[in-house]
Amino acid sequence: MDNQRCPLCGRELGSPAQTSRHHLIPKSEGGGPEDMVELHNICHQKIHSLFSERELKDYYHSIARLHEHEDIQKFVRWVRRKHPDFYQYNRRKKR
């Protein structure tokens, strides 16, 4: 993983323990291995704290579309200054 970058926040991917694979189209909605990207755990968790699996399938199924959302933009501006291994839990938004 040397010098690989998180497609959501742009930071280098830190230790493998702090990364995970995200299905751009959730498996439960028909996504497969071709729909996977490697993200920081905090970035992955942020996506799932904001969007339902249906929303991910229907609209937010690409990094570009995720970047359109105001809460993702705010999160990226905030997390961009953190160390690649930084992690904290994200609160789930009330729907």
Write out key terms for the chains shown.
95 residues; alpha+beta; two-stranded antiparallel sheet; 4 helices; 34% helix; globular
Set down the secondary structure blueprint.
Elements: E1 19-23, E2 36-40, H1 41-50, H2 53-58, H3 63-68, H4 70-79
Antiparallel strand pairs: 1-2
Helix pairs in contact: 1-4
Anisotropy-based shape: globular
- Mean pLDDT equals 89
Give the spatial strand order of the biggest sheet. Answer: 1-2
Largest pleated sheet: 2 strands, antiparallel
The tally of strands reads 2
Q: How big is the Rg?
A: 13 Å
Question: What is the structural class?
Answer: alpha+beta
Number of alpha- plus pi-helical segments: 4
* Poorly predicted runs: none
- Helix-strand sequence: EEHHHH
Strand content: 5-15%
Terminal-residue CA separation: 36 Å
Helix content: 25-40%
Write up what this structure looks like:
GO terms for molecular function: endonuclease activity; nucleic acid binding; zinc ion binding. It holds the Pfam family HNH. Keywords: Endonuclease, Hydrolase, Nuclease. This protein is an alpha+beta fold and 95 residues long. 34% of the residues lie in helices and 11% in strands. It has a domain at 16-79. Strands 1-2 form a two-stranded antiparallel ribbon. The chain is globular.
